[in-house]
Amino acid sequence: MFKVRKTSGSSSTKTLGYSVNARVWVEKDGELYLGGGRVMLLEKIGELGSIAAAARSMKLSYRNAWLWIDSMNRLAPGPLVEKATGGEKGGHARLTEAGKKAITEYRSLRERFSELVKELK
Amino acid sequence: MFKVRKTSGSSSTKTLGYSVNARVWVEKDGELYLGGGRVMLLEKIGELGSIAAAARSMKLSYRNAWLWIDSMNRLAPGPLVEKATGGEKGGHARLTEAGKKAITEYRSLRERFSELVKELK
Predict the structure, then answer these.
(1) In chain A, whose CA is at the least distance from the CA of B111?
(2) pLDDT tens digit string along B17-51?
(3) What is the C-alpha separation between A89 and A27, in angstroms, rounded?
(4) Cα separation, A7 vs A4, whole angstroms
(5) What angle do CA A48, A54, A58 make, to 5 degrees?
(6) Which of A15, A19, A92, B86 has CB atoms 3.0–4.6 Å from A84's, for a disulfide?
(7) Chain B interface includes A66 (CB < 8 A)
């Protein structure tokens, strides 16, 4: 009877044409730190090893991807993404341990909200 | 250690400068039906018995208040607000039983999300 639709950072459950929707995000001192889009960008960087490729896969401009990363690196206790410059890996980027942890924590947060949305029958 | 801040339709919990935020709303066939602002408008109409006074108390234009009400009345199973025209009550508005029920249901939905946000320590 219920259909659950999940999009980046949000959850919804549907009954008789009505759907409950929820969005979840984390702020630091009132500024956006982690949300669905930002965490997806981190995931793609982890997958693809490149900010340009990650941005492209999300149809996000490179400039915006950099602004998001810059903001996350600044607001996090330590940088989430670091550029691997020089040598064979020049131009590549990777997640730090803090970056991997941020993804895990956000995913678990979102999962709890999705569970609640699913419960709302 | 935790501060909980609640605004219309959203919840947040704070720790060490980081805060988890959630927003919840109900759609009908993909269109916004009930959210924090709309439910506050319903509550104010119930309190003040007038759309104009309710809009004013929220610093909302009368036109926007009407658009919200029109949309809610159209998307709900039955109208949530009705105008009491003629006689002593001319120009006044009141909530229908469906309107009161919509407030209660939305409040309970929001409460459950707030509880979850508070748990996230």
Answers:
(1) A116
(2) 888 988 999 999 999 999 999 999 999 999 999 99
(3) 33
(4) 10
(5) 135
(6) A92
(7) no
CA distance A114 to chain B (A): 11
Spatial contact of A6 and A13, defined as CB atoms under 8 Å apart: no
Q: What is the pTM of this model?
A: 0.72
Is A27 close to B33, i.e. CB distance below 8 A?
no
Give residue B11's identity as a one-letter amino acid code.
S
What are the pLDDT digits (tens) for A28-75? 999 999 999 999 999 999 999 999 999 999 999 999 999 999 999 999
B106: left (phi over 0), alpha (psi -120 to 50) or beta: alpha
Handedness of CA A14, A15, A19, A20 (dihedral sign): negative
H-helix or E-strand containing A47? Answer: helix A36-48
